[in-house]
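In this notebook, the sequence line spells out the residues, with the fold written below as integer tokens. This is how one looks.
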Amino acid sequence: MSAIVRALVIMILSVGSWKVAVAQQPSSPATEETAESVVAVSEILLRFSQFAAELQGITDATNVQVDVDPRMPVSPELIHSYEQHIQSIEQSLRSVLTRWDTYQIAQQYEIAASDTLMSVMASLDELRQACADSINKRKQVCQALRDFSEGEQYLACQDTVYKKLYKKAFPLSLVAKSAPLLAKLQAREALLFADVQARYDKVKGAVALVPALAPRMPAVDDDYIELKTVSEKIQALAYKPLLVRLKDYLIGFAAVAMLLLFFNMMVQKYQAAKKVRKSMKQYNDMLKNSGMNTEYPTI
């Protein structure tokens, strides 16, 4: 039971004691008017408590844990079931609020004349807003599940598309006359990657909202990085004359050759040091076998 509902119950009991006290007083026009006012306030408080209980029940119904298996993709059936649950709760809230607004309008004069009722109504408005906020939060979780499911599947299926784009773009970069076609293909790829980026951002936002999805994020990251790498290669393609391409190839080959030479030199040094260490060990073993002292003098 929420604090607002408990407060309403206490107020109803207090009004009930007022009714008893008023009934025990001698009958007079003022007493009868006071009794009628107390009865009206008591009845309105009772209806308020009913509305508060219904709103609290709806709020409690939204506190449903999302059962997500991090080892498996988010199934459309799970998302659909969760959406139906949220829609049912939202419909219940609309029904309660319709009755609440109708009753509030009908009793607006009695409510305005009582400080107690005005205070309770303000608390009920807070509970009403809290209930709506809870539903909206659950709707965001539901949308996050859908965004993650769709984004995960989309990114996983784009590798084939991007491989075909690169195979088509690379030959166009070899011929000067194909430059306009290459530019069109690069523009189309840029639009495609904008969609990839948007879906990836939605997936990250979904994980922030539903931490249970975090174990599936590394695979999505790998798919995104692979697509981004191919995208950068496609956008970097441009026609270069044969001599320029040959020069770039030779520079790249020379750089690789230098790295291999450095690596080979380091391997040779390591092997030489290992051979010296082995020779020293054999020499020390020979001295031990001959009974000679192998320890060096110390100062």
